[in-house]
Structures are given as structure tokens and as C-alpha cells.
Design a protein that fits this description.
With 660 residues, the protein is mainly alpha-helical. 62% of the residues lie in helices and 4% in strands.
């Protein structure tokens, strides 16, 4: 759609209604529904299916990482334990870190964003549906690639930080590190293409009228994380590829004897590693910022400052990686600069905290299960943030570096600030995902058990660190003074696991016996609650026209912005179509033809993963064969389709209709 009347392809979509059960709605459903059976499972590009797959797969990895943690805690519960050998412990704590940080923390947030973004933005799908499917398949295959080494005792064993020269072939001769290096490059491809998809979706697929200052905070959080991924992930992928070259072909990027720079590894890893912390936190903060106001019965206090603070946090996040390297002998000026930056970054984080507290204080809180998880998250966020500020002080960091204090801080930040919003978010959007309500009593039990277990399990780690207990040790002598804190930590970890088990039981029971959910059981303000629960395949029967930041609260708030049009909107049903809008003010700009389901993303993901398997096994002929198979998959993906062509004769546009 364009303003030029000379274009032979100009077309203005019809305005109208398509109520449930009407001929138009039935036709629309036929256009967007996925084929049943295994063919549909392998070929679907529906963002909702992909989002749920991300959530389920990430939770399975969370359970694996959790079991690994519990085994380690049994080993450390008492001194001089022999449950694990040192090598088994090394592989367990490496895979625990890799699983939690790379295979759970971000993918689970990608699940939320994949499912919710088009619904929140008033679109029928993501900008690149097939790229979306490819991102998931690559994520799944990279996780299987990493875990395939576990049963044969050759899993990564150098810690998730994988420092050189400890992980050079000279000191680690097995395939363990090669598995990690190649698996991370494969996972990096998944993360990068997924991030590009999010960025384009935000700037091109918002509903008409949803200007950039009207999008939900979750969208801001995922956007900033996606932009960061585009810059940060290639850095670590390059580092792992260079390490693999060192180990396989004798290059010397990190080999100090031959002029390499081991410190280069730390710089590259933490240039990625610290922004990654915010990548797995900012979307979670977005979940809280969007869902918490629903239960406070008022809009979020300070929408603009919170959105700006998310961007400021990520921007500053690229300037603090050195605080992971304070103890490596850097110049004093560098320590001072990066120490100051690490403290300054607490300011935008504090903006969000004060906004949440003010929203609760000024609202009328409803103390149900999602609210409890979100309120608990705020407390954990403050504790994790304060311990972070402490380690930003260079003299204190010298004392705390490589102790359990850092482990405590890491878990409050990565687990507390991620898991509690995620579980609260699942409770919040459970009715939308599955069309059923969860069990409220069991939900509250799961919160209190998780909250008590989390703090009993991880807060004593601060004390263990202050008592001098180093991290990454597989046992300790009985006279070190660490016996009690380790026993409490182990007990708390099992209580936390019990709480997580209650949550999973609640999900399974509610899926079968939960009461049917209405469209908007929480009386929430955003667009995803305007469609049935669960949403139909096409999302919106008509593309809505948005007039405010809270389209479902407009009658109640009466902010003077007019009223959104949700029942009457743009009818787009000449094939799979959605509306493209301008990047800032969301004016209708183009009708986008969306691709049909396809096997190409699955096979491209599969063959790409087999390329890496061939590289790992040094089966070069097999790797070349898989490269050719990937090329054929790509050709099938890009093969021209008549369905994607715009073939409507010129019609003079009605600007009053096309633009809002």
C-alpha cells in the first residue's frame, strides 16, 4: 500500500468486521491454520506454536540444569564427600552453567516474546515466520549437540567461562571443549537470527496507531536485548571459533608461547558475557512492568523513564565487562573507569525498582499468584543489585573475587531475577496460552515454597564467600568453617526444587482440569487480551486500530486519546497477509504477504547442525555433504511463490481510511 496512485500494485485493504463464526472468519481460519499431524509439527511457522515450543524446551533444560545443581549440592553438603569425582564435578558444574545461562535463561524469554509480540502489537505473525522457525530448530539442535556428549563422559568441563590456556588442547586433550566451542557457534546463529526478527517485527508490524511510545514495556525489554545480541553474540562466537582453530589446526590466537594472548579470550568473552546478563534480565523486567500494573489496577508509574532505563542499562552494559577482570592486573585508570561505570549502571535499574514500588503503593493490589511472584522478584532484584554494586568497588572485588559471594550474586541475578518473573508470567498468561485457569491455591503454595527455598539456598552463599570459600571446588576439609552454611544451602536448594515441582504439577493439573478462561480474565489493558483464549491461528480477525497505550482500559481511564477500534479494522484475507506500518508513528504503509508453512527451516536447521557434528568428528566429507544439503534447503526456502505476489489492480487509495 502506498500513496502513489501511479503504482500498478496499489491496493487499499477493505475495512470491516469478521465476527467469530462469520464466513470471513472461517475463511481466515482456513488460510492460517497449520496442517494436523507430523507434517504440521515439522512445517509450522505459527509464532504461537514456536513460542510454546521455546517455553517447553527451555523448561526441560531448566530441569536438567536443576538436577545437575542438586547433585552438586549433595556433593558439597558435607566436607570430604566422594559422591562425585573431580572430573565428574567439572563436567556437571560446566553443563549446569551452560544449561542455565544459554539453554534456559534467554530461550525461555524468547518463548514469551515469540508468543506474545504479534498479539501485543496487533499483528498476525512475526516479520519473518520461517526465520522464526529456523531459530527454534537451531536452538533445539544446539542443545542436543551439547548434551550428546554427556552420556559418554565427554561433556564440556572448563566452566561456562571456558578460560584459556586451561582449555587449550595441551591441558584439555579430549573433545569436551570442542563440543562446547562448536555448540556455542551453532547456538549463536539461532540467537542472532531470532534477534533480527524481533527488531524488524517491532519497527514494521505494529497495529495502526500504535506509535513507538505506546508499545508494552516487554517489547522494549526484548528490543534492547535483541539489539545487544546482534552486537554481542558474534563476539563470543568468534572467540569460540578461534579457540576451535587453536585446538584443531594449531593456530595461536590464545597460545602465549607462540605469541598468542590469553587475555584476549577474557576480553572477548566478557564483552559478550556482561551484556548477556542484561539480555536475560531486561525482558524479564518487561514481563513484570506489563503484568504487575494489571494486579495493581492502575497503569505503570513512569512508563517513559522505565522504557528509557531499559535502553540506558543495555547501553552501559557494554561498558562494564572489565569488572569481571579486576584481578587480572589491569592499569589503575582502567580499574577506576570501569568500576565507576559499574556503579553508574545501578541508576537506571533503580528507576525501574522505584517505578514498580510506586505502582504497588499507588494502586489497589490484588494478592493473587502472579502478583506474589512479581512482588517477590522486586525484593530479589534489590538484593542481587546491591551485591552487584558491592563487587563494582575494586578493593572489595579483590577480596570477593572467585569466592562463593560471587556465586550468590550470580544466582540472585540470573536465577532470581529470571525465574520468578518467568513463573509469574506463565501464571499470568496461562489462560491465554491454553484457555484454562490455573489452580490459585497450588499457585500460592508454589510461590512461598520457591521463595523460601531460594533465599535459604542462595543467601548463605554470601556468608560462605565472606568466610573465604572459593568457588568451583568439588570438596573441602572439615575444619574450614564452611560446614553449616553448605548444609543450609543444600537444604534450601531442595526446598526450592520442591516449589518448582509444585508449579509444574499445577501446570499439568490445570491443563486437564482448569476452569475455562474468558478472553480477559484479569481485566488487563493490552491487545493480547482482546482475542479469544487461546488465540485463533490468525490472531486478529481484523487488524485493530489503536488509539492509546492501554486499549482495553480506555473507557475506565478516559485519558482523552479517543477510542481504539478492535472489532472493526482492516480485513486482509487474500492469502496470508498482515499490515506493515511505519517505524515510529505506525501509519499503514504496506500489505505484507506472509509465507506458508514450510519444511525448509527444519531441514536447514538439521543439516546445519550436522555440519557441526561433522566438524566435531573431523568427518570432513560428511561436513561438505551437509553444507550442500543446507544449500538445497535454502534454495527450497527461497523458491519464488505466486502466493507471495501482490496481484491486485490499481485502486485509488482512500487516505482517510488508510491512515489513522
Amino acid at each position: 500500500m502506498t500513496d502513489s496512485t501511479d503504482s500498478p500494485l496499489i491496493r487499499v485493504p477493505e475495512m470491516g468486521r469478521a465476527p467469530l463464526g462469520s464466513d470471513a472468519e472461517i475463511r481466515l481460519a482456513g488460510l492460517w491454520e497449520t496442517e494436523p499431524g507430523w507434517r504440521g509439527r515439522l512445517s509450522t511457522v505459527d509464532h504461537k506454536t514456536i513460542g510454546l515450543r521455546y517455553l517447553v524446551t527451555a523448561f526441560l533444560f531448566l530441569l536438567l540444569g536443576g538436577v545437575e545443581a542438586l547433585i552438586m549440592r549433595l556433593q558439597l553438603a558435607q566436607p570430604d564427600q566422594t559422591l562425585l569425582t573431580p572430573e565428574q564435578y567439572n563436567q556437571l558444574f560446566t553443563m549446569h552453567g551452560v544449561t542455565m545461562i544459554f539453554l534456559y535463561a534467554l530461550p525461555v524469554l524468547s518463548g514469551f516474546s515469540n508468543y506474545l509480540w504479534p498479539l501485543m502489537l496487533g499483528s498476525r505473525d512475526m516479520a519473518f515466520p520461517r526465520l522464526n522457525a529456523l531459530s527454534y530448530w537451531l536452538f533445539l539442535f544446539s542443545g542436543l549437540f551439547l548434551y550428546a556428549s554427556f552420556p559418554i563422559g565427554e561433556a564440556p568441563n572448563g566452566g561456562w567461562f571456558n578460560y584459556v590456556p586451561m582449555t587449550d588442547r595441551l591441558y584439555d586433550t579430549g573433545p569436551n571443549i570442542d563440543v562446547y566451542a562448536l555448540g556455542m557457534v551453532l547456538l549463536g546463529i539461532s540467537t542472532t537470527v531470532g534477534s533480527i526478527n524481533f527488531i524488524v517485527t517491532l519497527f514494521r508490524l505494529r497495529a495502526p496507531g500504535m506509535s513507538i511510545d505506546r508499545v508494552p514495556i516487554l517489547v522494549w525489554g526484548t528490543l534492547t536485548a535483541s539489539v545487544a545480541n546482534v552486537f554481542a553474540v558474534p563476539v563470543v562466537s568468534l572467540a569460540f571459533f578461534m579457540l576451535w582453530l587453536d585446538r584443531q589446526f594449531g593456530t595461536h590466537f590464545f597460545d602465549v608461547v607462540n605469541g598468542g594472548k590469553p587475555m584476549l579470550w577474557q576480553h572477548l568473552f566478557w564483552m559478550f558475557g556482561h551484556p548477556w546478563v542484561y539480555v536475560v534480565v531486561l525482558p524479564a523486567m518487561g514481563i513484570v512492568s506489563d503484568a504487575l500494573p494489571t494486579f495493581c489496577r492502575r497503569p505503570l508509574v513512569g512508563y517513559a523513564p522505565v522504557a528509557l532505563s531499559a535502553m540506558a542499562t543495555m547501553l552501559l552494559g557494554f561498558g562494564v565487562w572489565i569488572h569481571h577482570m579486576f584481578a587480572t592486573g589491569l592499569p589503575t585508570l582502567a580499574l577506576s573507569f570501569f568500576g565507576a561505570t559499574s556503579m553508574v549502571i545501578s541508576i537506571p535499574s533503580a528507576v525501574a525498582v522505584f517505578a514498580w514500588i510506586a505502582t504497588i503503593w499507588l494502586g489497589r493490589p490484588v494478592f493473587n499468584t502472579p502478583f506474589l511472584f512479581f512482588a517477590g522478584f522486586v525484593l530479589l532484584f534489590v538484593i542481587g543489585g546491591l551485591s552487584g554494586v558491592m563487587t563494582a568497588a575494586v578493593p572489595l572485588d579483590f577480596q570477593l573475587n572467585e569466592t562463593y559471594f560471587v556465586v550468590a550474586h550470580l544466582h540472585y541475578v540470573l536465577l532470581g531475577i529470571n525465574v520468578f518473573p518467568v513463573v509469574g508470567g506463565i501464571y499470568y498468561w496461562f489462560p491465554k496460552f491454553f484457555g484454562r485457569m490455573f489452580n490459585e491455591t497450588l499457585g500460592k503454595w508454589s510461590f512461598w515454597v520457591m521463595f523460601i527455598g531460594f533465599n535459604a539456598g542462595f543467601f548463605p552463599m554470601h556468608i560462605a564467600g565472606l568466610l573465604g570459600m572459593p568457588r568451583r571446588i568439588y570438596t573441602y576439609a572439615p575444619n574450614m568453617g564452611w560446614n553449616t552454611v553448605n548444609l543450609i544451602t543444600t537444604a534450601g536448594s531442595f526446598v526450592f526444587a520442591l516449589g518448582l515441582l509444585l508449579f509444574l504439577i499445577n501446570v499439568l493439573v490445570s491443563l486437564r482440569r482448569g476452569a475455562p478462561a474468558a478472553e480477559n480474565p484479569w481485566q488487563a489493558p493490552t491487545l493480547e487480551w482482546a482475542v479469544p483464549s487461546p488465540p485463533p491461528a490468525y490472531n486478529f480477525a481484523v487488524i485493530p486500530i489503536v488509539a492509546s497505550r492501554h486499549p482495553l482500559w480506555e473507557d475506565w481511564l478516559d485519558e482523552g486519546y479517543g477510542r481504539s477500534s478492535l472489532e472493526t479494522g482492516y480485513l486482509l484475507m487474500e492469502g496470508r497477509e498482515t499490515l506493515g506500518t511505519t517505524p515510529l508513528d505506525a501509519r499503514p504503509d504496506v500489505i505484507l504477504k506472509m509465507p506458508e508453512d514450510s519444511y525448509a527451516p527444519f531441514f536447514l536447521g538439521l543439516f546445519s547442525s550436522l555440519i557441526f557434528a561433522g566438524l566435531l568428528l573431523q568427518a570432513w566429507d560428511f561436513a561438505v555433504l551437509m553444507i550442500m544439503a543446507s544449500g538445497l534447503s535454502l534454495i527450497a526456502w527461497l523458491w519464488p511463490s505466486k502466493a507471495l505476489a501482490q496481484r491486485v489492480s490499481a485502486v485509488k487509495p482512500d487516505k482517510g481510511v488508510a491512515h489513522v
